[in-house]
Amino acid sequence: MYPIHRNRRLRATESIRSLVRESLLTPNDFIFPMFIAEGTNAEVPIPSMPGIYRRSLDLTVKEVKELWSLGIRAVNIYVKVNDNLKDNTGKEAWNPNGLMQQAIKAIKDAVPGMVVMPDVALDPYSIYGHDGIIKNGDIANDETVAALVKMAVSHAEAGADFVAPSDMMDGRVLRLREGLDSAGYQNVGIMSYSAKYASSFYGPFRDALDSAPKDADIEVPKDKKTYQMDYANRIEAIKEALHDVEEGADIVMVKPGMAYLDIVREVKNAVNVPVSVFNVSGEYAMVKAAAERGWLDHDRVMMEQLYCIKRAGADLISTYFAKEAAILLNQ
Ligand code: PBG
Asked: Where is the active site (predicted)?
């Protein structure tokens, strides 16, 4: 008998393939990242991210309603902070009437079921474009963590369902958990950016928020390598994820996605909490650029990417493709 195995039987038709498909992708796997700015009826396109806008609150709310109708159940939110509100303490980050706090309230009021996951990190608020407070030429870990706790509690007060620390300071998950609990927010979850690499794939995101590390009057690191991870490392990612679970993270994240799917699988195998993957701005930009030139089939490459992220072990995916992919999945 030759061949012994006719594996192609299971690939013969789309019906058979759909019966034996190992991974499933649905709109409720997605978290849609949104950029918010001051103003009304304002919509500014991000040049390096075609199809993505920085929107005022009113238009953000409109968009959130549309996302909901497509089956998307979660949003990450990021704000563009006016320069006059930036300093080296980040104090605008816990202003109860700040743009982020207003955004959380407005989204929860309009679509109460939407899971709102604001970003917790100081970079949009920092005059130096860093995720923390600068002291003696570096990011001061423990002082930054104390600031992040105030920020996260103010997000919880505004109605956030989860807080999503993306700063990579040590010990922040434990302090955030303690801070939320003692303020009475035991039910607000933590989705920790656990294995977040110092990646050049974040370029377009920093364009969107004008949050790249900047030249300064004092000595400031020119990149984020003293807190975000070295992309040559693997074991360290497992260590980071395990520490965050131990400190109380409800969901751990690996970021970026595509070039880091080995890490996604390792983390998935190591932890007993859901794993989220951030399919970041640069990954989005590359597909858009190649598709614009006719070099890649946009929709097919998008779906392949998202399925492969699921297959690698993601339970949730933060992706700028969420809306387009949901539309295709709903057809
Ligand atoms: C900031 C933050 C970044 C991203 C999410 N939160 C940028 C950075 O760390 O410099 C990147 C997201 C993306 O590229 O899509 N703490």
From this structure: 196 (schiff-base intermediate with substrate), 255 (schiff-base intermediate with substrate)
Query: Is residue 11 situated within a structural domain?
Result: no
What are the pocket residues of ligand 1 if the criterion is a CB atom closer than 6 Å to any ligand atom?
119, 121, 123, 131, 166-167, 202, 205-206, 224, 280-281
Task: Please state, in angstroms and rounded to a whole number, the distance separating the CA atoms of residues 235 and 216.
Answer: 34
| Sequence letter at residue 105 | K
* 255 carries an active-site annotation: yes
pLDDT in tens, 215-264: 888 999 999 999 999 999 999 999 999 999 999 999 999 999 999 999 99
> Is 222 labeled as catalytic in the residue annotation?
no
Query: Which residue CA neighbors atom 11 of ligand 1 most closely?
Result: 202
In the numeric block, which tokens belong to residue 49?
Answer: 């991210």
Q: What is the pLDDT of residues 100-152, one digit of tens each?
A: 999 999 999 999 999 999 999 999 999 999 999 999 999 999 999 999 999 99
User: How far apart are alpha carbons 156 and 151 in whole angstroms?
Assistant: 9
Residue 311 belongs to some domain of the structure: yes
pLDDT digits (tens, 9 = 90+) for 258-293: 999 999 999 999 999 999 999 999 999 999 999 999
Q: The domain that contains 203 carries what CATH number?
A: 3.20.20.70
CA distance 161 to 156: 7
